[in-house]
Amino acid sequence: MKYETIHSLSLPKIGFGTWKIGGETSPNRAWDTKSLTALRSALEIGYTHFDTAEYYAAGHSEELVGRAVGESNTKRENLFITSKVSPEHLGYDDVFKSCDSSLRRLKMDYIDLYLIHWPGRGMKLEKTFPALNKLVRDGKVKHLGVSNFNLKLLKQSQAYSETPILTNQVPYSLPDHSYVENGVLEYCQQNDILVTAYSPVKFRSIRVNKTLKEITNAHSATPFQIALAWLVMQPRVITIPMSFDPQHIKENFDAAEILLSADEMTRLSNAWEKGNE
Questions:
Q1: Is residue 192 part of a domain?
Q2: Number of domains within the chain
Q3: pLDDT per residue over 70-126, tens digit each?
Q4: 198-242 pLDDT, tens digit each
Q5: What is the bridge-based pairing of β-strands 141-147 and 111-116?
Q6: Is residue 276 in a domain?
Q7: Is 164 exposed, middle or buried (0-12, 13-18, 19+ CB in 10 A)?
C-alpha cells in the first residue's frame, strides 16, 4: 500500500468507505451479514482507514464498523477511523452529542478524523469549530476536516480550526472534475490538505470508455483498478472505494500498486472530455 504523509501522519492511499454498510439513510438489518462480511474482508486484506458517518444507515454503519473491529485481531491504534457530523447537528452543543453518540456506536474512545459532512443551510462555522476544537483538546477526536466544502468555506474552516484541516472529502473521479474546476484540488495540494475522493468508481461509462479500456488492457487490470490508480498517483489525493464483494475489495486495495505513466495519466485526465467518452 502507498501512503500519503501529511502533518507527521501517514494515511493509506486507499481506504474503505462504508456508505451502504448496514443500510442507506436508515438501518437495513437484512444487509448486516453482507456488511459484516465486507468489513471483515477489508480488515483481513489489510485496510486500515475506514470512513463512516452518523448519517450512514442512521448510525448503524458505525455500529457495524465497531463490531467488526472489536471482533478482529486488529489493534485500535493501528486503525484510522473517520466519521462525520451531519449538517443539522452543527450547533455547539449538538456537535458534542453527535460525537459522543458516534463513539458509543463505534465502541471506541476516540475518532481519528472528524468531518463536517456537508455545509448546512445557515451554518455558522464560528460556532461549530469551538466545539470541534474542544473535542480535539479533550482527546475524543485526533484530527479535523470537512466534506463537500467549496474553496471559500474551506478557507474559513482553516481560520477557525486550532489544528490543521486534514482533508476535504469531495466527489472526484475520472469523469467528475468539479473540485478541480472550482480550485479546491490545487489549493489543497499547495496547502498540505488531503483531498479524499469519494464515489471514485461510481459512473456508468467506466467499462466502455475507449481510453480506459486500452490502459486497463495494458496493465492487465480492471477498469475500477485503473480509475483508482489514476487518483492515488496524484499528490495529496487519497480515496475510499466501497464494495460488498471480497474479490473487489481486494482488487481495490491492490490498485494502489499500479504505476501509470505520465502519458497514461494525461490521457485518462482527458478521457471524458466531450467527444472522448
A1: yes
A2: 1
A3: 999 999 999 999 999 999 999 999 999 999 999 999 999 999 999 999 998 889 999
A4: 999 999 899 999 999 999 999 999 999 999 999 999 999 999 999
A5: parallel
A6: no
A7: middle
